[in-house]
Amino acid sequence: MSREVVYGRNPVRELIAAGRRRVHEVWALPELRDAPWLAPARPRPASRAELGRACGTSDHQGVVAFCDPYPYVEARDALAEGGVLVALDGAQDPRNLGAVARVCDAGGARGMVMTRRGSPGVTPAVCKTSAGAVEHILVSRVENLASFLHDAKGPARWVVGADSADGRDYREIPWSSDTIIVLGAEGAGLRPRVRSACDELVRIPMRGRVDSLNLSVAAGILVYEALRGI
Amino acid sequence: MSREVVYGRNPVRELIAAGRRRVHEVWALPELRDAPWLAPARPRPASRAELGRACGTSDHQGVVAFCDPYPYVEARDALAEGGVLVALDGAQDPRNLGAVARVCDAGGARGMVMTRRGSPGVTPAVCKTSAGAVEHILVSRVENLASFLHDAKGPARWVVGADSADGRDYREIPWSSDTIIVLGAEGAGLRPRVRSACDELVRIPMRGRVDSLNLSVAAGILVYEALRGI
């Protein structure tokens, strides 16, 4: 089985805490060896240069783990227990993906759905920017987002797309705790087929001059609104 | 007078559109010269290499403007007309500052207050990550944030600090449209003197395993909540 790297203190801590993927080996700077969260993983001492080579960036904060690949779930499993999901129609920036993962974890959404093509997936950089949140939420990759949404919706599950031009004000719709929130790429918005798969379009009012909120900010406002009643 | 650079398409477009600072000169790739938003500035043709040298990054998207320094406002002017302000207690990452500026613009907050020391101010990188939002909102730098808050608060103006441990749920307090929202650095939270200058502490519920939201996401949720009624 191929192995992946996870780097950075929060990501490695959450990788270990979540226990969802097997950790083969951990390398760390000698001074981190006895940190309570890391000691049980018995890290192998490594230099900054070795750590940098292992993960391809200097952003490792002294620790790199080698582990099983990210455990994506099947779409049906992401849907199985209900709850809020965030579906991303074409988000490519690892910082955005990581920040949306943090929103899901903090806000109580079950996870994220993204397309297999056009999205990088849960790369080591996404793990890092998510502060390890990806280890706790569900992430599913689908071939075709519009088809996924068509299959997923039903009497008890609502599909709500964010559309800055045409949507109803997000404060005015009846939110359900069993909702898929669909967000497009910044600037581009939702593709037509994805848009037409939505039961409802909502917009967050833009009161200024610059047109769009950062993707993770929009995700935060909508996830907290969907779960406002809990 | 010293001059600053602003780079990137949105930042330069908003710099020109806002008209708050004098633009000395604009350099652009030849193919951008006739773009409707740029043509009136009569850009001087420049190569990618020249643009990169002028702004110190390859992230210029083909356009760099030389202009007056960023027009910070005095604290009293930021307060003069009421409204919502976001005060940052120690935010250093330019991406966070830029994203909070976008939140202010989009959400209808008047602007941001930051400390002179410990914060980079509105650098070219902040202009870029704000997509030009900094040209439209007010930004004030103060020597001492706790003193500023003490001076600012009054019967009509409320100072609300975000505190993930002790605050009241943000959905439960009576928000006023004349509020200063105070956010600490990620992880560190508010410093004690800043914290004690707040009339009220609020928290955004964290329902997952990873402890804090990205700064701009927290700002987005609270700014939209403060102005929910408008």
Protein architecture, described:
Two copies of one chain form a homodimer. Chain A has about 230 residues and is an alpha/beta fold. Helix content of chain A is about 30%, strand content about 20%. Chain A contains eight helices and eleven strands. In chain A, the strands form two sheets. The first copy, chain A, has a seven-stranded parallel beta sheet, sandwiched between helices. In chain A, α4 packs parallel to α8. Chain A is elongated and about 55 Å long. The relative contact order of chain A is 0.16. The interface between A and B is large, with 39 and 39 residues.
Largest interface: A-B, 39 and 39 residues
Q: What's the pLDDT, averaged over the residues of chain A?
A: 93
Individual helix count of chain A: 8
Strand % of chain A is 15-25%
| Secondary structure tally: strands of chain A | 11
**What's the overall geometry of chain A?**
elongated
Helix/strand order of chain A, N-terminal first: EHEEHEHEHEHEHEEEHEH
Strand order of the largest sheet of chain A: 7-6-5-10-8-11-9
- Uncertain runs of chain A with pLDDT below 50, 5 residues or more? none
Structural class of chain A: alpha/beta
The multimeric state of the shown protein is homodimer
N- and C-termini, Cα separation of chain A: 41 Å
Q: Give the proportion of residues in helices of chain A.
A: 25-40%
* Largest beta-sheet characterization of chain A: 7 strands, parallel
Give the C-alpha Rg of chain A: 19 Å
